[in-house]
Write a structure and sequence with these properties.
Aspartate Aminotransferase, domain 2, 2 domains, single chain, four-stranded antiparallel sheet, binds pyridoxal-5'-phosphate, 13 helices, Aspartate Aminotransferase, domain 1, alpha/beta, about 40% helix
Length: about 400
């Protein structure tokens, strides 16, 4: 008899987006003529930058000739892309990262999800609340938690990000071994200063813990004094792994390219307390289970770092940030407290009522879809997330409708 991994039974049905889809479909059936505007899911809506497309085409043409054809590439990614990343995203900002510390992948979702495989089962894990659900669910699948109880998994440490701490969690009181952090944050849109980040690095150094730092939204940071990488904090190279993605930076959500940085100095410990290289572990994992990102896609990603590419990706994120500013302004005028949207494509709105109730209200009265904050964790209850990934025209129309609906209450 084939037995299942019963940890999967602990998972709360991936209910957030399926429940949204169910409610939206039911509404559309009843209101077939209404144009629903979706500001829920965090997927980009604009085309890939022209420079990336050009590089993509060129690389596809190379695949058409025996002389330039490429088969399996290096599992860790092509050197041409790893070099550009190390130079442009890290060394140019004073973070000492070398190309061989960068692992190219097909997504930050898989990397943030798979990384926990490298840790012992009894590793104590801290996750933000509200949280990007991948960090939690992958640890549940692996068996690092007990049952779901009162909106949380027993066995995880939740780092609360609420109005009370301005959405920057405080250090855990109990000792933890792995800490997931995400800045600019999904879902709150909040970002962090160097002074706010430093204590986390100090904590990890003191406790021989590891920070898994998700910077998938770094392209939206507009204040140059804010850290773009955790490696801008002294000592972080020994205790932090950083995840980045071309998805939101350059519109690669459907194209798939991301990377994970593991400094060679980062260590994990065996049960005897002896150190081992985390870099070597991930390298072993990737070369066993992963065969690299396709050559044309890595060429398209490389084009992001050309001068034209840099201009074009900046235009993309500027566009979404302008949308986010419109959302923030409109909701603010209606009297709602909002965070995010200034260095992130998400605006986190205090709904002053149950998140699903607010979701239903916006759907029924305005035909606008947002994401109920409760789906991201207990601390998200009472909030909703607006995504700025849509056309400006749709954002404006959505906000007109939302304003009218809420004013008429
Ligand atoms: N990390 C965070 C915080 C995200 O919000 C997302 C996507 O929404 C990802 C990672 C996934 O990125 P990718 O498209 O590279 O898998």
């Amino acid at each position: 008899m084939i037995r299942m991994n019963e940890n999967y039974l602990k998972l709360q049905a991936s209910y957030l987006f399926s429940e949204i889809a169910k409610r939206v479909n039911a509404y559309q059936e009843k209101n077939p003529d209404q144009k629903i505007i979706r500001l829920g899911i965090g997927d980009v809506t604009r085309a890939l930058p022209a420079t990336c497309i050009e590089a993509f085409h060129k690389a596809v043409d190379e695949m058409a000739q025996d002389a330039t054809f490429r088969g399996y590439g290096p599992e860790q990614g092509y050197a041409f892309l790893r070099e550009k990343i190390a130079e442009s995203d890290f060394r140019s900002r004073g973070a000492d990262i070398s190309a061989d510390e960068v692992f190219i992948s097909d997504g930050a979702k898989c990397d943030t999800g798979n990384f926990q495989e490298l840790f012992a089962l009894d590793t104590r894990i801290a996750v933000p609340d509200p949280v990007y659900p991948v960090y939690v669910d992958t640890n549940v699948m692996a068996g690092r938690t007990a049952a779901w109880k009162e909106g949380r998994y027993e066995g995880l440490v939740y780092l609360e990000s609420t109005d009370a701490n301005d959405y920057i969690p405080t250090l855990p009181k109990e000792k933890v071994d792995v800490i997931y952090l995400c800045f600019p944050n999904n879902p709150t849109g909040r970002t962090v200063t160097k002074d706010q980040l430093r204590p986390w690095v100090d904590y990890a150094r003191e406790h021989r813990a590891l920070i898994l730092y998700d910077a998938a939204y770094v392209a939206f940071i507009r204040d140059d004094s804010l850290p773009q990488s955790i490696y801008e904090i002294a000592g972080a190279q020994e205790v932090a792994v950083e995840f980045r993605s071309f998805s939101k930076t350059a519109g690669f959500t459907g194209t798939r390219c991301a990377y994970t940085v593991i400094p060679r100095r980062c260590q994990v410990y065996d049960s005897q307390g002896s150190p081992h290289s985390l870099h070597a572990l991930w390298d072993r994992r990737q070369s066993t289970k992963f065969n690299g990102v396709s050559y044309p896609i890595q060429r398209a990603a490389e084009a992001v770092f050309s001068p034209a590419g840099q201009r074009q990706v900046r235009e993309l994120s500027d566009y979404y940030l302008a949308n986010a500013a419109l959302i923030r302004e409109a909701l603010g005028k209606l009297g709602f407290k909002c965070v995010g949207g200034d260095h992130a494509p998400y605006v986190w709105v205090k709904a002053n009522m149950d998140s699903w109730k607010f979701f239903d209200l916006l759907l029924q009265k305005a035909g606008v879809v947002c994401t109920p904050g409760g789906g991201f964790g207990r601390c998200g209850e009472g909030y909703i997330r607006f995504s700025a990934f849509n056309s400006q025209a749709n954002i404006e129309l959505a906000l007109q409708r939302v304003s009218a609906a809420l004013r008429s209450l």
